[in-house]
Amino acid sequence: MRRRPLLGLLAVAGLLGIVTTLNAWHGTDAAAGQRGFESGGVGLTRAEWEAIHGGGEVCQDSVTYGGRYVVQFAGDAVSFIELGWEERAGGGVATDAARAEVEALLPDDADRVETFFAPPTLGGPVGLTVERYQSDGLPDRYPSTQSSPSGGIAVIYQETGRVEPVVTRASIAVGREVGEP
Description:
This protein has two domains: 1-36; 46-176, 2-Layer Sandwich (Double Stranded RNA Binding Domain). Helix content is 28%, strand content 34%. It contains three helices and eight strands. It has helices spanning 3-35, 46-53, 95-103, and strands spanning 57-59, 62-65, 69-74, 77-84, 111-118, 126-134, 149-160, 166-176. It is globular.
């Protein structure tokens, strides 16, 4: 008769162990989901951004980093980045080089969904290429902002030259839900 209570106690202890293990796995998965956001720039907290790029200099509503990046934050997360290549030989970089550098600043889960072209015209020497990306993990990076990010990201490349265009600047901006400022 003493075996049954002992077996019952072992069974309860075993179930508690299984439940504890399942909760630990679930907690680990949940934490991994929060830590699972990977980006080289957009959506990072200011501390995460500055751990990569160093401290910046505040200029009105943005912060410049080493003369390389102009960054704005929504809440504590990077919501806008501008970078330029005007100082390089030839006044810019090839489109593929610019795209590679920009994509390194986007969340890993960002997918390019549309591209628009506005070539240089007789009225102006600058052409624009606009790419729209979508990131499912991005909205969760802005919990303290008043406007709701849509997960959309717009990248605008400024290009000069008609035969062999070069990219001189790129702007990366996080989208907001329609109807919000």
